[in-house]
Specification:
By secondary structure, this protein is α+β, with helices and mostly antiparallel strands. It has a domain at 52-168: 60s Ribosomal Protein L30, Chain: A. It contains five helices and four strands. The chain has helices at 2-20, 52-59, 76-91, 109-129, 154-160, and strands at residues 64-66, 96-102, 137-143, 162-168. Helix 3 (76-91) packs across helix 4.
Length: 169
């Protein structure tokens, strides 16, 4: 009797488990469609037009002009660079610029500050002669205080005798 009861319980349990079993469907449902996500706006390539980065990239190194020892005259190569700068400045009439005058390490601090000022003013005068409004241009001299090349040789000195145009605003 006990055996029949145990067997009955086992049978009932097997039937209950069989009733709970799920059958695999004959065909799988299609995968869900991808959610529609908007395409992100493409990032602008290159610098923002009218920015200092735009100016520098447009100039391709011609945002700097170089001078001979103890000189501040604008030669033909400098004129070509300043013409490109003037064209850019005329394209962006709201932009202002600072012309920085620099010197090499030779000479006194006062001499180099004065020479750097003459170099910055020479670049400014040429830009004004090309039609850039002089009120948009400021000058500053750093003399020998901000060299780009360290060294006491002609190669380093030549790189430091310069006027650099930096756009502002």
């Amino acid at each position: 009797m006990k055996r029949q009861l145990t067997l009955g319980i086992l049978m009932a349990s097997a039937l209950a488990l069989a009733a709970c079993q799920t059958k695999a469907p004959e065909e799988l449902p299609p995968p869900p469609a991808p959610a529609a996500t908007p395409e992100p706006a493409p990032l602008p390539s290159g610098p923002t037009p009218g920015s200092q980065a735009d100016f520098a990239s447009q100039m391709s190194g011609r945002d700097v002009i170089y001078f001979d020892t103890d000189r501040y005259n604008v030669d033909a190569e400098d004129q070509a660079a300043l013409q490109l700068q003037a064209q850019w400045l005329q394209r962006y009439p709201a932009k202002r610029a600072t012309l920085e005058g620099h010197c090499d390490e030779r000479g006194t601090r006062d001499y180099n500050l004065a020479l750097g000022e003459r170099r910055a003013n020479a670049a400014k005068a040429y830009l004004v002669s090309l039609g850039v409004d002089g009120s948009r241009l400021t000058t500053i001299s750093y003399g020998k205080e901000r060299p780009v090349a360290l060294g006491s040789n002609e190669e380093a000195w030549a790189q430091n005798r310069r006027a650099v145009t930096i756009t502002i605003d």
